[in-house]
Design goal:
292 residues; mainly alpha
């Protein structure tokens, strides 16, 4: 088969039609049927009626293939020692026809564009084959389209510096925060001079490069605020006794005793009750905070 007729790189699958005719198949039968269709497409529309070969195509043992053959054969025509499928044969022929038309249109376009009688409005090969291209993505209009539509405009070229990223540099030892960053530091009660020194020292040591050091410093300030909040939270948690510990039980007993004393109007009995509660807690709890 010539390159112009090569169509085995893709195969159309009409999902609605496929599902409508295969509702009775189980998972293994679906997989085997699709493998047979793909092998048939790549093999010029037919497969040999050879059980060993067909079993190898569907990745089944001979015994498994014996159980699959009768069901799958319903979708094929078996004649003259070959398997073929009517719908697949029609689609394969249509694909070949489209491929040949595409190749011919490309040749004609090349002949007009670069041949002896070249003209300025000859379409490119890409434009000539666009109608038969299976990709749904449209190509942008260019001067060829403008010429075909009767216009005289062309797609403008982008600026010379389009897409060029801002130059990235290392931190300047004399880096100075701008007014926006100074205002941000003030709002969050941060020492702007200390933050600047740590910022410059850090990035001088790492050797990192950035396109905008003011933006990086803004992020640095926000990170400092978060670090401070995390540190305060950890300190607060550290001051709380571990749940289930002896200290937690003692605090609970003290709180209960204070509440009872308040209800009974006993205002001067705090210390004795606290000592009694402490002794009670030590008797109730063993060394690791668990009750005896």
């Amino acid at each position: 088969m010539s390159d112009a007729r090569k169509t085995d790189v893709w195969m159309p699958l009409f999902i609605g039609d496929y599902l409508a005719s295969t509702q009775h198949l189980d998972t293994r039968e679906h997989g085997a049927y699709l493998l047979l269709l793909m092998a048939c497409w790549r093999n010029d529309g037919s497969l040999p009626d050879d059980n060993k070969r067909l079993a190898a195509i569907v990745k089944a043992t001979p015994r498994e293939w014996n159980g699959l053959r009768a069901t799958l054969a319903e979708f094929f025509t078996i004649d003259g020692g070959v398997w073929s499928q009517k719908r697949l044969s029609g689609e394969l022929e249509a694909a070949r026809s489209n491929r040949e038309k595409s190749a011919q249109r490309a040749k004609n376009a090349a002949r007009v564009r670069w041949g002896e009688h070249a003209v300025s409005n000859a379409p490119s090969i890409t434009q000539a084959t666009l109608d038969d291209c299976p990709s749904p993505s449209p190509l942008p209009k260019n001067k060829t389209h403008a010429a075909e539509s009767g216009g005289n405009s062309i797609t403008p070229l982008p600026p010379a510096d389009a897409g060029r990223s801002q130059q990235r540099t290392q931190i300047d030892s004399e880096f100075s925060p701008d007014e926006q960053n100074r205002s941000k530091a003030n709002r969050h009660a941060l020492d702007i001079d200390a933050e600047r020194e740590r910022f410059v020292a850090h990035y001088t040591a790492t050797g990192d490069v950035r396109a905008n050091w003011q933006s990086q410093f803004s992020k640095w300030l926000l990170d400092s605020v978060q670090h401070r909040a995390d540190a305060e939270r950890r300190q607060s948690e550290a001051r709380q006794p571990r749940p289930g510990s002896k200290l937690a039980y003692q605090n609970s007993y003290r709180a209960a005793a204070d509440a009872a004393a308040e209800r009974l109007g006993i205002n001067d009995g705090g210390p004795p009750i606290e000592r009694d509660i402490t002794l009670l807690a030590s008797r109730v709890l063993d060394g690791d905070g668990r009750g005896q």
